[in-house]
Amino acid sequence: MPSDGDVSIRVSGVGKCYHIYARPQDRLLQFLLRGRRQFYREFWALKDIDLTIRRGESVALIGRNGAGKSTLLQVISGVLQPTGGSMDVRGRIAPLLELGSSFNPEFSGMENIGLSASVLGLSEEQIAERREAIIAFADIGDFIHQPVRTYSSGMQARLAFAVAAHVDAEILIVDEILSVGDIAFTQKCTRFIREFRERGTLLFVSHDIGAITALCDRAVWLSGGTVVADGVPREVAHHYKAWMAGPQQHMTAQDFLETLKTAEAEATEVEAEAEAEAAVEAEVVVTQGGPDGETALVQTLDAQVQTVFRRDVLSSGEGGAKILQAWIEDARGTPVSMVNGGDLVTLCIEAEAQQTLDSLIVGFGVKDRLGQTMFAWDTTKTDLVIPPVNVGDRFRAGFRFHFPYLLGGTYTTNLAIANGTSDMYIQHHWMYDALEFHVQWSTVAQGLFGIPMDGVSLAINP
Q: Residues of 379-394 as b/e, b for ≥16 C-beta within 10 angstroms?
């Protein structure tokens, strides 16, 4: 356990209970009888939450709607009082919670700057010094003089974030506010958050898994008001997405995670045994000697290093189809183990129908080591007309594209089979990180992708 000096937020056994009344008159009856009879049912939005956040950590809260994320943020921010448990928060908090929650809708944006900044702890002198910087950061033009009730959700988010960015907070709490702004506002806020991480503590709620893995050191998965998992963002998000893909209808998040970890442990043992057997076989080949044996060994290892399809990875879905194999082909249709940026390739996915699929969807998504999606595609994004697939039918989808220029490193590919439309579908088989490939070297200088550079010129005219 970290020492008290290293802790920004410590939550111990916190619970939050709401009284749910079936009829309006039950509230009056409850008041008149003063507890001699209960006219409500209890709803626990938070149940015995324990959470410690160290100074300088960036922690994300993830979970489906109603999991308790916003309630926990409001309790930590002091907006709500917990029903039970204790909290210790050290440092000035800048909470960005529900849009406009700290604004008076009848006040102008200018007046609300003073109101919100004073609530967050700034003096009149400090507010006066920073007012112009806040106005510039918000960048809402003449609307700064209009009542906040006339603002769009994006304009409210701009003003709220602008105030929070200028109050010298030590703890920044962000509750999905980035989802309502335009791209310029989102990029500005993301830059500020990245800079803030260097000096403060961040508590972040978002349904954008890519943002969570990019901005946070830890992820805490909440479900039903309790903590399901707390760990590395990519791993926690991986398990959460697997549960959201279907099993949440059949089992609780806690039960699913226990089942999943057991399956992963068994898969790891099987994989380790397979690697051990492969190592023994390879050793035999080398021992036999000869240039042919050595050449075969090098070729086999080279193929394994470049592209690997794993059947025993984590998967989810309703079971109406099963992915059997996936591979990459070159422009001639030959399976390859190595590709270069710019190569014309085809990603092939072969599967078998376990039930009739009248509106088949096949798709894939490539992720980097942080879990950020690099690119993705599925058959709903084309004009392809797919006939119904019957039970027992095997089918193969091919996605033909020019392979992008990626940074060097390891990338994994999610594979998916579904039935329905792009807006409404049933996931039948989703394989996580099933196809793995490695970029051995790269010409990408900066960023996530590179572009083919045909030439660079520089002319000086004296």
A: ebeeeeebeebeeeee
